[in-house]
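Cross-check.
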Amino acid sequence: MESPATLRGFLGSGKVAPEGIYLRPEGAHFPDRYEILVRSGEGTASFGNLPAEAIRTWAEDEGAGVAARVEDLLVRIAAPRKPFAGLPLDRPVVMGIVNVTPDSFSDGGDFFGPEQAIAHGRELAAEGADILDIGGESTRPGADPVAPEDEIARVVPVVRALAAEGFRVSIDTRRASVMSAALEAGAAILNDVTALEGDAGSLAVAAKSGAPVVLMHMLGEPGTMQRDPRYDDALLDIYDYLARRVAACEAAGIGREKIAVDPGIGFGKTVAHNMRILSRLGVFHGLGCPVLLGTSRKTFIARISRDEAPKDRVSGSLATALSGIAQGVQIVRVHDVAATRQAIAVWQGIAGARL
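Predicted model, tokenized:
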């Protein structure tokens, strides 16, 4: 099951387009085994537990284009990630959520006033958050947009106060004007659910600022994204989308080392789509960027469990975070920082005991 001949028998010969090849590491760090996924007009085929050399030999037989694609993926997957926003990625990074909104799906209204939001940010930092992600517009399914000036009024006092206290702050927004105002107030990271294409000015703001960016995939708009979302293959369609957005950022002068990618769990995806993505998150390491995972308290957890309310989905949130970390995800975005830090510490202790 490991030889190039077996791989040729499985995939055929001379039939594979380079852009249709994807690799998923079987282990989280510096793996020596991979699953190869090949997409064609007939759908997606996959073949797992292959050593890198068998894949290389098969790829060389397929021609220069396939060989170059495979080598590029292998190098990007195995390369150590540089620090992101000054944070080393040799341990999981926790991004704590601070929603300065009246209508977010989980905690809307809980921290709507600046004083409450600032206090909550301090609390999350004390619990172990490495990044405080400040958002002033709900992007839950069905949410209505917020005027940029209102969003700025919500987030800037919170960003300014927390940044002045020395906390690393990201701004969760899809608008260039809000990005600019937050950066001026001290934000260090741009986190955009539209991957810097929802506002014509966002890419330029990001490039000029030099700030690290998080590019997330969302299908459509928050108001409509859950109305019958469809993909050819959710996992690979999203990979291709993020690859295009990374390329657009690089063309604008944003280096790959300043880009993190987020597959956007729950943003225009069914439960089946989410499960497909979560089961193979390692594919996204082929982009050569840190991977951020945001599953905290999301609806899919209730749909595969017992229809729990958002604040009762902590256990499911922890399960998905640990599953992602086991697949090499470097950043997790969460509401429940203390619980997440505890779960990670125990998981790392168990993993370390195996070595």
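The mean pLDDT is 92. The longest helix spans residues 234-251. Passed to J.P. for a second look.
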